[in-house]
Design a protein that fits this description.
Blueprint: E1 6-16, H1 22-25, H2 27-30, H3 33-49, E2 52-60, E3 76-83, E4 88-97, E5 103-111, E6 114-118, E7 122-125, E8 128-132, H4 139-153, H5 167-181, E9 187-188, H6 189-194
Parallel strand pairs: 1-4
Antiparallel strand pairs: 1-5, 2-3, 2-9, 3-4, 5-6, 6-7, 7-8
Helix pairs in contact: 3-5
């Protein structure tokens, strides 16, 4: 990515299955699927593209009685970001496929003459696999190992998205909730960090 002129990113997550932990089922407890889950992809995009400075979002909220209890998270989160560099991104997280097993996803960064798609195991550029890891350890194992090594060594640089640095990711995710609550209003992340604007955990649309 550092060798390319990046222009935009697109992330689509279509989650299936009704099995979900109680706290991740409740909007007021976890902040919704975007805050609880998609924030990890926001971290990754920031690693590629730098910090985010603006967010605008629209959610399709779940009405009472829609879907199995105890879930009250929105059905769909559609979030637009502008990075400090000017690069833009759209992220969609959907939890509509309740009775469908598995996860469908597509993560893409588009640069000049380069379309890069990635998953936990593969990186594909313009239809050609440029990195495949069929034999390696699961990514979550590698993440846990890196975190443990950083703690033991006292070196936060061993974690590619340190917690202090990730305040921007948290502000970006909570900022999406605030924007959706305000009917898509553009939110400056500096206002989220300062507390000038706040998400109301009791909001349900």
């Amino acid at each position: 990515m550092a060798q390319r002129t990046n222009r935009h990113a697109s992330v689509q997550r279509f989650y299936g299955g009704a099995s979900i932990r109680y706290w991740t089922s409740r909007f007021e407890l976890c902040g919704g699927s975007f805050v609880e889950n998609t924030i990890h992809t926001v971290d990754l995009l920031r690693y590629f593209l730098g910090d985010i400075d603006r967010v605008s979002a629209f959610y399709l909220y779940r009405q009472p009685g829609e879907g199995p209890e105890p879930i009250n998270n929105p059905h769909v989160y559609n979030v637009n970001y502008r990075f400090s560099s000017g690069v833009v991104a759209n992220l969609t997280t959907s939890r509509v496929l309740t009775n469908v097993e598995g996860v469908s996803r597509m993560d893409v960064v588009v640069s000049d003459d380069s379309l890069v798609e990635w998953s936990a195991r593969d990186v594909v550029e313009n239809g050609e696999a440029v990195c495949t890891d069929d034999e390696g350890e699961a990514p979550t194992v590698l993440q846990a190992r890196s975190f443990a090594a950083a703690v033991r060594s006292g070196d936060p640089q061993a974690v590619r998205s340190p917690y202090a640095d990730s305040i921007n990711s948290l502000a970006a995710a909570l900022g999406a909730n605030i924007s959706a609550e305000r009917d898509g209003e553009v939110i400056a992340l500096e206002d989220v960090v300062s507390g000038a604007v706040r998400w109301n955990p009791e909001s349900v649309g």
